[in-house]
Amino acid sequence: MPYYNYRVKDGRDKVVEGMVQAASASVAADILNDQSLTILSLDEARASFLQRSLAILNRVKIKDLVIFSRQLAVIVSATIPLVQGLRILVNQTENDFLKTIISEVADDVEGGAKLSSALARHPQIFSNFYISIIRSGETSGKLDEVLNYLADQQEKDYDMIGKIKGAMIYPVFIMVGLVVVGALMMIMVIPQLTAVLAESGAELPISTKILIAISSFLTNFWWLLILVVFGAVTSLKMLIKTNKGRYYWDFFTLRLPIFGKLFQKIIIVRITRSLNTLMVGGVSLSKSLEIVADISGNTIYREIILETVREVEGGNPVASVFLRSKDVPPMVSQMLNLGEKTGRFDEILDKIANFYSREVSNTIANLSSLLEPMIMVIMGVAIGLLVAAIILPMYSLASAL
Fold it and tell me: What is the per-residue burial (b if ≥16 Cβ within 10 Å, else e) of 285-321?
């Protein structure tokens, strides 16, 4: 998340300079305005290595944020004074970094700041989406209802992410194990076996020659392979950071066999659930769409949503862009169109989110069932190649003797 250098005037017309971290320049401006500061200049700054390192180390897990949201919702619903409730959460929070943040938020609220403004000072923890929900609850006077709804939606997102991670643990563990064992065999075991075949002077089959060449390369130039892999990963990350590179990467991921449809369903759940949460919280449609565009996590869908914002501001239906796009499933477009015409837009969004959430769960379960036999086939092929390249030539050599 970028940093912004600011130069402002406080309530006593004193010029103050500093740095604030925010998702965008507009969010940084909102943070400063909420503190009754007059902005003189606001420019993006490059974060220092120390700041980037601290941002990596001081991370709050999704689970910690879900628990905080649920506890805060309970406290507000119980009509406990907000500052007192935040102090209680400081003692109940296990994450030390989050504990410090909550303590600072409590100090700001005690000093007269709104909860949304106090949370907005920590954009590395609380997103623009989160702040907007809280701010809408403060404006409407329904902070307890909004917090409960936000906590419910966060728990659903956390459950979905947990299912995805849980389903991928076994295949990833097996694949990593295969790569490690295969590399050790190629470097330590295969050279000893192939040495016997090479010394015999017999004509070796092409599969054995290829295996010997690969083993020799890994034994002598393993460091080169590590450098190539590291360079490729680093180059890919740098390419993805560019606008064009990110677009092509997102386009590629959506077109992947099997996984492309899964990614699409996850994005749709994220968009519809977030949009529903914002609208139920009282955020305007245009503002909700702008926020959802930033948290969609996909450049293609971000452009679709931003174009939808322009269409809505021009007086056109919400579903107009979705109906024209090939990247949005027809069912989603038709349901959005129906929801807008019948005045049940938020209800339709909730139904779409629930439907595709179940689709994601089913797809993950099917993938788990499909990946296990695929891994067994890969292991069988690898063992077969080793047998063909090593065992058979050694058997032929023994028979000849």
Answer: beebbbbbbbbbebbbbbbbbbbbbebbeeeeebbbb
Burial class (CB in 10 A: 0-12, 13-18, 19+), 393: buried
Instruction: Choose the final residue of a domain: 117, 132, 152.
Output: 152
- State which amino acid sits at residue 33: N
Pairing of strands 15-21, 38-45: unpaired
Which H, E and C letters describe 317-341, residue by residue? CCHHHHHHCCCCCHHHHHHHHHHHH
Domain that holds residue 84: 61-152
Go through the chain and tell me how many residues it has. 401
Collapsing DSSP to helix, strand or coil, 377 comes out as: helix
Which helix H or strand E contains 104, and what residues bound it?
Answer: helix 96-110
Helices (H), 242-258: 243-254
Rg value, the chain, Cα = 28
| pLDDT computed for residue 231 by the predictor | 93
Tens of pLDDT, residue by residue over 360-382, are: 888 888 877 777 788 788 878 87
Question: DSSP letter string over 106-133?
Answer: HHHHHTT--HHHHHHT-TTTS-HHHHHH
Confidence of residue 49 (pLDDT cuts 50, 70, 90): very low
d(CA 318, CA 311) in angstroms, rounded, equals 7
Residue that finishes a domain, picked among 56, 71, 101: 56
Residue 166 tokens read as 């849980």
Q: What's the CA gap between 126 and 32, in Å, rounded?
A: 16
| Full-model pTM | 0.70
